[in-house]
Amino acid sequence: MKLDYRCASDADCAVKDIGNCCGTYPACVNKDSPTDPAAVQAQCAKQGRMSACGFRPVDACSCTQGQCTPRGDASQSQVR
């Protein structure tokens, strides 16, 4: 499955859990993009892969140059 980060306006973007090898991983993607965090974790386990745990909180998204990105100044975010 390929995530879709494309957008034409902020309304095209949404915060969704895309998953990683540690578990939950919120990201800004196209509101219609399919996500499957459980499949990501299953693939990690099958391949014996690990991932850096933690993420920056994402509360809202913006459309920046055709890509969904976290809104606001990421340098002020704290890693969870």
Backbone structural class: alpha+beta
Work out the radius of gyration: 13 Å
Instruction: State the helix count.
Output: 1
Order of helices and strands: EEHEE
| Helix content estimate | 10-25%
Strand percent estimate: 15-25%
Mean pLDDT: 87
Describe this structure in words.
There is one protein chain. The chain has one helix at 37-47; strands at residues 13-17, 26-30, 61-64, 67-70. 14% of the residues lie in helices and 22% in strands. The chain has one domain. The strands form 2 sheets. A two-stranded antiparallel ribbon has the order 1-2. It has a two-stranded antiparallel sheet with strand order 3-4. It is of the alpha+beta class and 80 residues long.
Secondary-structure map with pairings?
Elements lengths: L12 E5 L8 E5 L6 H11 L13 E4 L2 E4 L10
Antiparallel strand pairs: 1-2, 3-4
Summarize the structure.
This protein has 80 residues and is an alpha+beta fold. The chain is built from one helix and four strands. It is elongated.
Features:
single chain, 80 residues, two-stranded antiparallel ribbon, 4 strands
